[in-house]
Amino acid sequence: MAKVNKVNPKENGKKEEKEKGRVDFSIKDAKYRDKDGNVVTAVNGDGLLVAVPVPIKDADGKILYAGYNARKHLPLKKSEFASITEYLRYQAFVARIKAAILVKNAEEKEAKANRIEKFGDEATRKKAQRVAKMREQLAALENQLKSEGVNVDEI
């Protein structure tokens, strides 16, 4: 039965919605690359993780093993790791992924803010976009005429 928040009813069911679609990670198949670069199992004889299961690619960049994905899989539990150090490394791994996503979002927002600051209000931005699109069309038309042998500079 789902927890009901009587103080703030809007929060009811939010955690369930967030985790919907995420699946358990299969620990038995977990792999990682050791210090020598060899692909080895991340599970010890007791069935506990001794390393964070990370994606593994071949020399061409093709993914051989998808590894743990914080967006796709439910969080791993402390009891699934052989030691606290490996669990803390896992938490650091997830934190770095979240940080990278936040940095990417911040850069996109800064770029958008710079664009808005450059052109001002909404009407001016739309006019600037229209001019940019017209320039692209004009350049394409000029290239087409040049390919047909027409000297565009004499026009």
Identify the notable features of this structure and list them briefly.
single chain, 3 helices, 4 strands, two-stranded antiparallel ribbon, elongated, mainly alpha, 155 residues, 44% helix
Description:
The protein has 155 residues and is mainly alpha-helical. It folds into two domains: 21-102, no CATH class; 120-154. It has helices at residues 14-19, 84-119, 122-147; strands spanning 31-33, 39-41, 56-57, 63-65. A two-stranded antiparallel ribbon has the order 1-2. A two-stranded antiparallel sheet has the order 3-4. It is elongated. The model has no long low-confidence stretch (mean pLDDT 83).
Counted beta strands? 4
Largest sheet: 2 strands, antiparallel
Please give the domain count: 2
Strand content: 5-15%
User: How many helical elements?
Assistant: 3
Tell me the span between the first and last alpha carbons.
76 Å
Rg over CA atoms: 26 Å
Shape: elongated
User: Could you report the average pLDDT, rounded to the nearest whole number?
Assistant: 83
Fraction of residues in helices? Answer: 40-55%
Strand line-up of the largest beta sheet: 1-2
> Based on helices, strands and strand pairing, what is the structural class?
mainly alpha
Low-confidence stretches: none
Order of helices and strands: HEEEEHH
